[in-house]
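Worked problem 6 (solution included).
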Amino acid sequence: MTRTKILATLGPSSYDKTDEMVKAGADGFRINYSHVKPEDYPFIEKLARGIMQRHENVFLVGDIHGPKLRLGDFESRKIKIGDIICLAHYSESSGDDIPFQYKGLENHVVPRNRLLIDDGKVGLRVKDIKDKKIICRVLYGDLIESRKGINIPNVSIPMKYLSEKDERDLQFLVDNNFSYVSASYSRTAGDIKQVRKFTGDLIKIIGKPENYEGEKNLIEIIKVCDAMMVPRGDYGMERGVENVPAFQKRLIELCNIAGIPVITATQMLESLMYGRDAKRPESTDIFNAVLDGTDVTMLSGETSMGNDPVRAVRVMERIIRKAEQYLYSKKTGVDIGERINRMIKENNVSDRTSKRVYEALRSGIYEAVISPAHHGTSTKKMSRFRIKQLIYAFCDDEKVRRYLNMSRGVIPLPVINGYFSRDPIKFIEESIRIIKSKGYVKSGDNVIVVAGMGNYAKGNTNLVMEEIVK
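Solution. The predicted structure is:
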């Protein structure tokens, strides 16, 4: 198994291949609700329930639409450079017009603006706005498809954050025990708070800052999220591809410091959509994301629409494995945690404890970390150091077990005999017995036990013990 997790997007190519994908290395599955209609709910409900029944640790992520511009429904259309096409809202479109979903978009664009469709696969230049229609010339691209995203660089569109569709989808995600909702196009902490107000604490929230406003408010967004995503596709369209690498490294580092999981996404193995072999830059991209400190690497179209989603997961798993071998090698190893350790402020007992544990683990004499995870906060704070040793998190709550499975180097395990026993000695003995029985440790190994004693308040980690496996 790899420490870095794999999140695979589900779609027509993979709905019936989830078991094979888990076997190949997938740790979680994502569904993009921009493409989901209410009539699809029964199918997805059955799909999600089946996955969770068969796989005790797999986490599920649902992306809500958010304030993203999209085309409407129409027959795919072939285009060529120089073609003149018209875009209009559903209520104004006719004939050969291509519909878009946001009413009033024509009021926010002007001639010379660029419209980038489908992650930049199609480029349009606005020529004129006439009769509520946006008249464009094709700059590049050969096919425009239904419901694809629209990016307009350097243009801010004043859209409400949660639409009626988003609220329906949020309720569906909560009702069906999804671990995470991905808050697409997060612009401010207020956007995240709107989602939190609707869902309460029933689902964890992933922030997705995809434009200038989101980048400007990045620190505040991180503070109110449970996890973050590096959304390289839309961010690259909005801010320019030359800004993506620095943004990725900065966001990963900020999440490491905060102790929340971070996902690196978009076109990581795009060539496997239709081909058999990954491109060399793609392999390097995944490798470097692991070295940057990401918790999760994500597959999008490669698994939702690609020819061989299982192979895509398998190839990603192999690249991650090589990256981790390099990272933890005595000859080539890079201690990511050392930099993070210097940057963490000791604001509370959990931060202080996690730093002490990291410093002890650097000695190399310990083989594993054992921790009860009632809320999971302290476990995530230990994970942020990207230590070589695996963290075995014993959870008394299935939801906690699934959402912790997103954290790098964490293996969530169910508590078998009731609690987390109130007897710490009994808990330690039972935990060591379980991980030894699974072959994770052997007799004579040293392990560190990290726990919160006295009460079970969130993040109350105040006990560190050394034990020898008998």
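Discussion: The radius of gyration is 23 Å.
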